[in-house]
Amino acid sequence: MGESVLTRPFRRIDGELRCGDVPAARLAARFGTPLYVYDVRRIEQRYRAFASAFAGVEPLIAYSVKANGNLAVLDRLRRLGCGADITSRGELFRARKVGIPANRIVFAGVGKTTDELREALREGVYGFNVESRGELERLDAVAADEATVAPFAIRVNPDVQSPTPHEYTRTGHATAKFGVPWNETLELYAWASTRPHLRARGIDVHIGSQIVQPEPYLAALERILELADRLRREGHGLEYVDLGGGYGISYDEEPGMDVDALAEEIAPRILAAGLRLILEPGRSIVGDAGVLLTRVEYVKESGGKTFVIVDGGMSELIRPSHYGGYHAVRRVDSRETRPVRGVDVVGPICE
Questions:
Q1: What backbone phi and psi angles, to 5 degrees, belong to 59?
Q2: Domain architecture of the chain: domains with CATH
Q3: What is the pTM of this model?
Q4: Could you report the per-residue pLDDT of 46-95, keeping only the tens digit for each?
Q5: Active site includes 82?
Q6: Beta strand 240-242 with 180-181: parallel, antiparallel or unpaired?
Q7: pLDDT in tens, 137-194
Q8: First vs last Cα of the chain: how many Å apart?
Q9: Cis before 34? omega within 30
Q10: Which is the catalytic residue, given 147, 272, 340, 350?
Q11: I want to staple 312 with a disulfide (CB 3.0 to 4.6 A). Which of 34, 193, 211, 339 is the partner?
């Protein structure tokens, strides 16, 4: 974790890293390593930052469960009034197990199976964020089989380029696998209006991850609000706009998303449209509330390099190998002075 993050829930007292009020070394000794440690007070602060910034539009904040599905984290967020953004039957199970009401759950993801759609329908989730015509047709068939009506929002691909740190996390451009092309959206809503087991409840967009400026969100929102206005004039009873997630956090000295600045741009447009707002923050709620504690097992000299081999690999932290993600490395105990030199910190598995 970067020093900028360590000044919040993770701070040093006399050179010793604390996780909240507890020494990190004590946690590692008790529970073993590699060990993820989260500070629930920081999680609450981050949730309240979104709730406060967007208070004027009374949003549904649907925490993205894929960011961290730990039941203790989900339960704490549920007690704060948070909903859930899920992408699988397993995440639905976790959200419901801790008591998140089904009417505060939205089901996203490009690969929903028939069984997952059926289970979510039976639970009564608030909406399905549909990614394709094929998915909408399947949802229609499952809802008919269940003799019910499926509420949905089409995830629009607005063809907006988002300045994310890695190409894999840009999901709002035309060649991405996500969503329905914006110029095909009206036709799909029109088809759905002829199906008695489908109900258009909203419209959805998600343009990427680790975005730290409001402008891409504003560009995407303006495009889908234009579509929403036309759809409502054509008789589609839309209730909500889902702006997705991806709000960036700080991993180094660069700032994360200014949530208040984002709300200043987004909230007035939502109010003018007369629609409910759904937000799906995940990393931005839990990302800087956690550390990964890992223990040095060996120091190895080879090929003119020094390898520091720790017991945590990409099985615990995949971002560096998959995305080239940056995570600062810090010693738990900095009281002992040692020479500074460049090393490769590596884990026990291939990466």
A1: -75, 160
A2: 3-33+294-346 (2.40.37.10), 40-287 (3.20.20.10)
A3: 0.90
A4: 999 999 999 999 999 999 999 999 999 999 999 999 999 999 999 999 99
A5: no
A6: unpaired
A7: 999 999 999 999 999 999 998 866 555 554 544 444 445 566 798 789 999 999 999 9
A8: 20
A9: yes
A10: 350
A11: 34
